[in-house]
Structure formats: C-alpha cells, structure tokens
Amino acid sequence: MEPMTEGLLQNLSPSPSPIPKIEMRGIVKRFPGVLANDNVDFTIYVGEVHALLGENGAGKTTLMNILYGIYTPDAGVIRINGSPVRLRSPRDAIKLGIGMVHQDFRLIEAHTVTENVFLNFDGLGFIPKWSALESRLEEIAANYGWRLNPRARVGDLSPGEKQQVELLKLLVRGADILLLDEPTSVLTPIETKMLFKTMRRMAEEGKSIVLITHKLSEAMSVSDRVTVMRRGRVVLSKPTREATVEELSTAMVGTQIANSLGQEQAGTRSADSAPVLRVSGLSVIGDEGVLAVRDVDLSVNRGEIVGVAGVSGNGQIELVEAIVGLRKPLRGRIVLNGVDVTGASPRKLMELGLTYIPPEGKKWGIVQELSIYENIALRIARYEPYSRMGVINWRRIMEVSEKVVSEFKVDTASIKARASSLSGGNVQRLILGRELTTSKPSLLVAAYPTKGLDIAATDHVKRILMRLRAENVGVLMLSEDLDEILELSDRIVVMYAGRVVGVVRRSEATPELLGLMMSRGVGAGASP
Amino acid sequence: MLRRSLPGVIKLSLRIERRAEPTPRFSIIVTLGMLFFAFLASGLIFQLLGFSALHIYRSFFTTLLSPIMLEEVFRKSTPIILAAIGLCYSYRMGFWNIGAEGQLYMGMIAATGVVVLHSAGYGPGEQLLLPAAVAASLLAGGAWGLIPVILKLRFGANEIITTLMLNYAAILLADFLVHGAWKDPAGYGFAQTVQFPASARISIPGLSDSIAYLALAAVVTALTYLVFKYTVFGFESKIIGLNLYASRYSGLGINSIMIRGVFISGALAGLAGLIVVSGLIGRLRPGASPGYGYHAIIASMLGGLYPVAVLFSSILFGMLLTSGDLLQASIQMPKSGVEIMMAMIFLATIVAEFVKRYRLRLSGSARGVGM
Ligand SMILES: Nc1ncnc2c1ncn2[C@@H]1O[C@H](COP(=O)(O)OP(=O)(O)OP(=O)(O)O)[C@@H](O)[C@H]1O
Ligand SMILES: [Mg+2]
Questions:
Q1: pLDDT for A366-394, tens place per residue?
Q2: Domain spans of chain A, in order of start
Q3: Of A59, A309, B61, B267, which one has the fewest beta carbons inside 10 Å?
Q4: List of residues 6+ apart from A526 with CB closer than 8 A
Q5: In this structure, which residues have their CB less than 5 angstroms from ion ligand 2?
Q6: What would the CATH number be for the domain defined by A259-353+441-528?
Q7: Cβ atoms of A381 and A372 closer than 8 Å
Q8: Residue A428: CB within 6 Å of ligand 1?
Q9: A378 vs B239: CB contact, 8 Å cut-off?
Q10: What are the boundaries of each domain within chain B?
C-alpha cells in the first residue's frame, strides 16, 4: 500500500512535479551475440508524450517489447505506479493498462474495423452484440475527432486509419500507457499531424504515450520528454523543452553528423532525355476490384529521379506494382529500355535491368525464418556465379552477404542469424543492400526506401540514389515524405484518385503546391 | 485458456505462450518424447481392449531382432520411405498433397501395364523390361500428381480435396483393370494380373531383395538431402513454402517450381508402387497397397520433412506394419490394431509441433496495482 500513499502525497504536493507512471530500472536484455538493452533506466510519467530516439538497432523496440511482456528481461525491475510487476506476456501488460502498436500493422485486412478491434477480446460473450460494439467505437473515434467507419473493411483503409484501428484496439482494452513503435513511418504529413493531435489529447486525459521515431522534428514538436538510446544504453533523457536538435542527434550517433548531402543538388542535371521507362495509358485494378490506377502516362529518363507524391491510397502502390510485374495491368503499355514489358513477370523485368525496393519489407522483401545469407540467396541463387548448373555455391553467397552486411551496416551478430532477429531498420538495410549490391539496374523503383531508417542510414540511401543518378540510372521513387521528394527528385509526379494530376519540375515545386495537388487533385505544371 | 481460482488465495491460470525458435535438438527431444507418449497411450488402449500391452510392445521390438523379421520390416518400409520422401518435396512448398496413395497406385498400374504388354508379345524386350517399368511408374505417378497442381495453379482448386479424390480414382482404376482386361487367364479366376517375370523384378546381385529395396530408398533419400541442401530448385521450393510474397517479389518461377516439385513427389510415390508390384508381391491385385501412401504422410510429418529423419520414421512404420502381421497371427489382434498406433503417432506429431512452438505454464496471475 505504501507506494500508493507516496503517489497520493506527490499528487497533493503544491508543485506539479511529474508523477512516475512506469519506472524501468536496470533493464538488461541479451540476444545471442548482442546486448540489446544494457542496464537501461526509463521512466514514463503520467500525462506525457515521451519520445524515444536512437539509431537502427539501438534497442528501442526491445525495450518496449519488454514493457509489453513480449520479452522477459535478463535483469532489472519494472514498477507501475510504484509497485513492482512481472510481465510475462502481453496479456499481463494489457491487464495493467499497457498497450503497444507495433512497427508493422497487425490487422486482418479482410475483416471490419470492429471485428479487428474486438478480436481476442475478453468478455464479448458467446454471440457478440456487434451494434453495441460499433457504437462504442464510434464514440471513441468521435472523442478524438477521427472519421472512422467501424463497419469498413480494414483492407480498404489508409495507413493513417489503420493506425487508428490499432489505437482503438488498445483503447477499448482500457490502456492508459500507449507504446507506439515508429507510427509515423507510413503516414503522410497530414496523417501524422492528425496522429499527433490525438496523442496530445490522450496526454491531456492523463494517458502516457511513448513515441518511437527517427524524425527529430517530430520528437521536438509533439513530446514532453525525450530519451535517446545508443547501442543498448540510455545516453540522454530530459524534458524536450530543454533539449536541442543538435544535442539529440549528437547523442544518437555519438559524434557530430554533417548535415548536408553536398554534391550535386537535385534538378541540376540536364538528363539526356533517353527514357528508360515509359508508361502510357496504364490502368490497373486494385485489390478491391475497382480501378486503382486510371490512364496514367509517365516516363523516367536515364540519370533522373522521378518522385511520385500523393496521399497514400491514391494508386501509387498499384502503379508501382504494375510496373514491376507484380500486378497485371488492365490496359496500357509499359516500355522498359525500348522493350514492351507490359504484363512481364518480375523475373523477366529483373533480368532486363529493373530493381525494386518493396514497400513492406518484412512481408515482401525477406523470409523471416531464414538466415540473412539465405535471404540474400533468395535473389541471386539462380544466377551464375552463385550457382552452376543448378547447384548453389554457398561460399560465394556468404561472401556477398558479408559484403552487403558490412557496406550497408546491417547490425547483426552474424550472417547466419535469422532475419527475424533484425531490428526494423536493419531489415530495410538488408533489402536495400541486397538489391543494390547484387544488381546493376538501369531502372530502380523504390517504394518508401528510407522507411524505418535512422538519420545516418537515410542519408546513406539518399547518397546511393544520387550516385545511381550520376551513373545514369533512372529512379522512380515513392515517398510519403515531401521533404525527401523535394530534396531528391528532378521531376515530381503527383497522383490523386488513381490519376496523374500533374508533373512538376523540381525548380517549380514547393511543398504548398504539391500539398494542394495531392489533396485536391488540382493539376499544374509540365506535361508528363 | 483454463482457469481456476483457489478460494481466497491466488488465481492460478494455465497459459499458452509462444517460445523462441526451437533448436534442432529441442525439436528432436520433443518429437521423441511425444512418440513415447503415443506408445504409452496406445498400450493403454490395447490393455483396455483386452490385449496385453507388454506383449504388443515386445512384438514391436522383436521385429528388429530376427533377421527374417528385419527383412520384412525393410520390405514394408521401402514403399513408405519412397512415398514419404516424395511428399517432402510437396510439403516444403506448402502443397498439401495427400495423394501419395493414388500416385503409388498409378505407378503400380503403369509398371504392370508394361509387363502385361510384354507378356502379350508387345512392348519392350527382356532386357528393357525393368527399365521400361521403372520409367512408366515414375511418369505415371508424376503425371497423376500434375493434375492437382495444374488445377491449383490454373483455377485455385484446393489440392487437399483434389489429391484425395484422385486416390479413389486410381484405386478404382486398378480394381477395374484387375477384374477385367488385365486379369490373369491362368489365375483360377482370382482377380490378379500375371506374375512379373524374373526380368521385371528388382534385384541386386549378391544382396537379398529387401536390402536391395532399402538401398534404393536410401539412395533416393541421400539424393533428396543433397537436392534440398545444395540446389537452386531445393532452395527455391523452400522459399515458396515459407513466403509466397517474397517468392513473387524475388522473381522465382513459382509455377515451374511447383510443377517440378509435385511431379517429383508423385514420381517417387509411383516408384514406391513399382517396388510393391515388382518387388513385394510380384503382380497387381486389389488392395496391393495397405495404405503405404497414407502412412507416408504421417512419416514425412514425423520426420519434420528432413529426409534422413523421414527415412527413420518410415522404418518405424515398417516395424508397426510387420508387428501388426505378427500380432494378427499370434494373438488374433485385428489389423486395425496397428492403425490405432499410427493414429496415436499422428496425433503425437501434431502435439509435438505445438509443443515446439508454445509453452504451457501454470502460474499465478500478474499482480495488479497496489495488491
Ligand atoms: N529476437 C531477437 N533475436 C536476436 N536479436 C535480436 C532480436 N530482437 C532484436 N535483436 C537485436 O537487438 C538489437 C536491438 O534491436 P531493436 O529491435 O530493439 O532495435 P531498434 O532500436 O528498435 O531499431 P530500429 O530503429 O531499426 O527499429 C539489434 O541488434 C537486433 O538485431
Ligand atoms: Mg525497432
């Protein structure tokens, strides 16, 4: 009982000093070959938004997984409201009001919002009263100003709305401590703004929120307190208003990082206008059976980066999937290096010089159950010299794997480790590393290439994209990050409702103009 | 979730938790442990049915002790090994082929067809008789496997249903032929084909037949091990089973791999059929296979789709079948007796898979705030 009284006393004390909600002390978590959490102290206070920063593999997700009962720590204690607790599974955590939204969505696309939210929910009864549950969700949604239809199929929702469904799952279970692992990495700026509004509102209601992010600006703008981890340790933790961006980024990497890509700026090269990709009149049916891409014309020249901007769900993914051969177009033509490749298989396209970075790396890009070197073999095993007459040369593959891992700084104990042991950002590094070291593309199609990457790795990828451009490769890039698009693209294609509503040259593009085109579908600028 | 409250004390709950990835050693221990339970449980059932469990256990292990029994074990194991190794090709791609029995029957039919043709004065001569029978059984088993895989790739037909139905089709076709056109005129009216001539029987000079069969199965097992470990096809077929998205993305020729894999799967079942007609019984008759193709399903699962382990689990089934014959003769235990044991082993395999992935834990519930 004592801790309670302590809490009460604190509450009564005149100065509103923050009340600790959760205290993690001396947390240690070791994985084979890595010390993921090294004696970590982490405190979450009542009614705060707490940003947790750190490079890829710093141990952020691990720490949150421990708090959510997914991992048990090797050492350390966790106290909630002052009393020590043992969290053996997410069930325990949920009972104590802790909820987590993972780096990747864990939703069933074919089911409705309500079904997803109340899946595995205790106390539904044998025959759930769906209408009552739906109105409950509507109520919560209204409270946060969300326009979310409880009867909508989750597969039809935008990433921002899926995020809201994940939050609903926690809220109906009474969570007042919400752990959000890189929630903004798939959101557009508008969706992010919306999420932050929700988070602030939750904090006002006395909930505590942990936000993991790689964007310092987000941490600065929304959080009350910020903690930085590096190599498994906490290196900084203080109120956000006392912190500076420079201080945080230095804490994250350990040294000052140069903040310029230098070299050539986007849009300065006059591309020799030989198109490597030419798409004309392309229409594509989406998963829901309706036209997702409508009559799109598009071209990418050698030595040019073309950015595709748009609010997610406006056909960008379907467009890209049609170009890379994962989706059969309904109408139209796709020409790669002068060859008609409409409806060609991914393999054929690959062999014709197309390299593709998929949007959901964990689902499309890797096989979790396999080791890192087998994941690299995935892409190359069938080609010489990695195999001869159908027999794989594993030694060769291991050599390339070592190269990929070291050049792209994939943080792992060994190339024999399973891909499932990689941190989110390291999965992305592995995919990028594999694709870019094992192929010599003439066209790179990159969907959200910097998703989940920390600042240094993002920088690395941007440099690579620019290097490819300098080497006369054509790049088609999808990104939710307008700044990134503006920074890298020579031309920007804006999509709205499945159509290209405008193509803007870098020199003419401003965030305002793009924002307007993306949200209203107003056309402008040069022709495709 | 099972829950009960101890009055006034703490809540106890039995909970299911996911484990980290099982190590190979742990997997083997769990599987062996579950096998042990399966034996205990079936012993209990036999005891309740009025048979002595001890006697049954003893007869099971004596199959390994006498050379004659051991030969019988090898004879019965061989078709199971071949079919089970074949199934590994299907299952690792996530193609749930339960049609090994039908593919095996097609192998028997094709091999017999070659012999029937030969005895009617057509077809291959003496020297080519066996090679022709082997080729025919491989092709027929493989082709029978192609039907469901093509139906799946083309129309999305569920292979569990199509392969199962094709089993009946093959078995009935065999009955039809044996009762009709292929019936041995000199067979005193029995529904069976002519005896295979010596030139159509498998033998290796200097080896007893059973060892020769087993050697063949062992070679197939070893080759399969190498295929899985070192070839592009073996590697890519595994990827297809693990993650179809990644397979599409990385440009695997999914259709061609599936077709090749299932063809091999069926061909090996067909080869198992050849062993039955050209080795074990020397002719085709109704019920020529006591369900080898079904035993193979359990054997491949029990062996975790690892070729060498599958070889041993198939031999276990050979032992079961042999001791079943023995018990039928000695204590009149009905044939279904061994089926009880096989079913228990199947259940044990499923439970073992579960135990490898999840942990059951009895514990007090986590303490809440201020307790
Ligand atoms: N299940 C696991 N098995 C083995 N190693 C693991 C496992 N989970 C995480 N690790 C390792 O622990 C370290 C910390 O990983 P963690 O996922 O916590 O990083 P993170 O800070 O969330 O990084 P990111 O920004 O890339 O998501 C990494 O080196 C990772 O490879
Ligand atoms: Mg992470």
A1: 999 999 999 999 999 999 899 999 999 99
A2: 3-97+176-253, 107-174, 259-353+441-528, 360-439
A3: B61
A4: A491, A503, A504, A505, A508
A5: A 61, 423-424
A6: 3.40.50.300
A7: no
A8: no
A9: yes
A10: 52-332
